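Q: What would this complex look like in 3D?
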Amino acid sequence: MAKKKVDFDKVKKDVKKTISQITEVSEEELKEDADFTNELGIDSMMALEMVAAIEKKYKIVIPEEDIPNIRSLKNIYSILEKNLKK
Amino acid sequence: MDNWNIEKIKEILPQRPPFLFVDRVLEIDTNESKITCLKNVTINDYFFKGHFPDRPIMPGVIMIEALAQASIILFASLKPEIAAKHPDYLFGKIEAKFSRIVTPGDKLILEVTKGKILNSGGIVNAQALVDNEVAVSARITFGVKQR
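A: Here is my prediction, written as structure tokens for the whole assembly.
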């Protein structure tokens, strides 16, 4: 159990790095709760790219209808948490 | 399938000659979310005048544009209610690999398959082929904006 938690911390770190690269928002600015559109200036196309990159990296499928609900890093973490703990 | 002649294509695509690069829609598979279109490449295409005067080669960027136009038609067939409002279609990101030159007389087959399609944009996987040989394969991210 403890091991799994450690793994997910690493996932979070990797995801943050990936998203920072795609969006060109620094990892420091990329706070868990920061709103992608209103605070970080991330547009819907970048959001699509993020989703595509995460799907590829973790071999998961994020349904199209869930994408507009992805507002912050926190949302992405919870999607991943759900998918990776299955 | 509906008869997708040039008039119907022009109802969806805002582009016009000489910048319209889909001559015909050959197939739309809405279950598979895939479209196949045709662009007949001819010496009359305007870009051959300068690219290049002594050796006509279809510019790679024009092939990408042709694939993007096919992508718009795929988007329109999956999201007809949005396409009906004639939004602006914008490139987001393109990753492409070119593997064959295209010259006058070639029949360029444009194949586009959905990656993700949302109301506000999409990601598609596309390839253009001549004689079953891939000339370019690309992954295109695009945005759709209401005016």
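A: To summarize the key features: The CA atoms of residues 19 and 50 of chain A lie 6 Å apart. Chain A touches chain B at residues 43-46, 48-49, 51-52, 64, 67-68 (CB under 8 Å).
Q: Very helpful, thank you.
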